[in-house]
Design goal:
By secondary structure, the chain is mostly helical. The protein folds into 2 domains: about 70 residues; about 130 residues, Alpha Horseshoe (Serine Threonine Protein Phosphatase 5, Tetratricopeptide repeat). Helix content is about 75%, strand content about 0%.
Length: about 270
Amino acid sequence: MLLGAVAAFAATPAVLADDSQGAPVATVPIQAGPGSLEARVSKLERVVEGQALADLLERVQRLQEDVQRLRGEIEVQANDLDGLKQRQRDLYLDIDRRLRQLETATASASAAPTAPTTSVPSSAAAQSVPPSAPPTGAMASGSNPQQEQAAYQKAFDLLKVGHYDDAISAFHAMLAAYPNGQLADNAQYWMGEADFAARRFREAADEFGKVVNNYPQSPKVPDALLKLGFSYYELGDWGNARQTLEKVNARYPQTTAAQLAQRRLDKMVSEGH
């Protein structure tokens, strides 16, 4: 009975004695519950942590969106750059085609025979003109512009579709067959362009140098000298690049090649080279 009474007394929230008798006040510790201060603080911490996590996730999502947007812009710019390179290559090819047509027309006009001023009887002509000897192999190859043109066009078509190695091999074969042909300088130049397009800048520099050294009277020399300077630039050979580009300006002023050379020189200055 006594234990039950003590247990019942302990279960009450608080027991207050008579203040007049000065008895102490009995208290019971506050238990944590749904409405307690500790529970409310814990709930508030969870809310704050959840909000911070939500903000962090939102920032990460925004960063991901920015990265995707920038990646898309980079892809667009890369496509634009590829298109620009293709248009530049097409322009070079079109200019070369026009020059070849002009050179062929000029060569045909200069090689056309003039009409004789006096008539010669056929019998006398037959006696005065000795029979011509059959051409040797070297003369035959050099005197067959149709076959040379066909070989050149075959290599040129490979270059136009981006088959650079095959184009170089075809140009090599053409030069071996027609070392002194009318299109030899053009073939040498486009071998350099093929290596340059394939980013083999050391080989490109060698091929462009051959145009300058082996065909000094060729109309391809200004462009070859320009691309030689560009090749040195890509190789990081700033001294030779500057010297070559300045040579383009000095030898061929007021030309497109000189303008392009000056632009690259200005770019080198801005880059600190």
